[in-house]
Design brief:
Length: 144
């Protein structure tokens, strides 16, 4: 936890910095991870993701999400060194194990369901809710 001069807890923990791993939310590389290699200006960053298939290029900050992961790279580091640092830090594995990645995978899975599979999910939820409602009502009756 970071502290400021007054001893209060800082609000932000993820900063736009060289070496920060970002999740690309929009564009051709949507859903991929990349590393910030340089900050162009207040709105754009230079990213490189050789391991994940993101070619080195400038991306608008509004199209990326900062992750909690960082990679030890220098300003303007070449692609080979970025790839080596990314692999040594095992960022892809750590991100895949995070709740964020699990939620993204679940969202993709739900989006790819067929009509019948959606129907089956609905029926399972109905049965689950019926059981929960019954147990809740039993507990409510015993308390009253």
């Amino acid at each position: 936890t970071s502290l400021n001069l007054n001893g209060l807890k800082m609000i932000y923990t993820k900063y736009v910095e060289v070496g920060r791993v970002v999740y690309i939310a929009e564009g051709a590389n949507k859903g991929k991870l990349a590393t910030i290699v340089n900050v162009v200006d207040g709105n754009r960053i230079l990213v490189d993701g050789p391991t994940t298939g993101v070619k080195r290029g400038v991306v608008n900050l509004k199209k990326v999400n900062l992750t909690k992961f960082t990679v030890p790279v220098r300003v303007g580091q070449r692609t080979g060194k970025v790839e080596k640092a990314f692999n040594e830090a095992k960022v892809a594995e750590a991100f895949a194990a995070s709740n964020w990645a699990k939620k993204v995978a679940q969202k993709e899975r739900r989006a790819s369901l067929t009509d019948f599979e959606r129907y089956k999910v609905m029926r399972v939820k109905q049965v689950r809710n019926r059981v929960l409602r019954g147990e809740y009502n039993k507990l409510k009756a015993t308390k009253a």
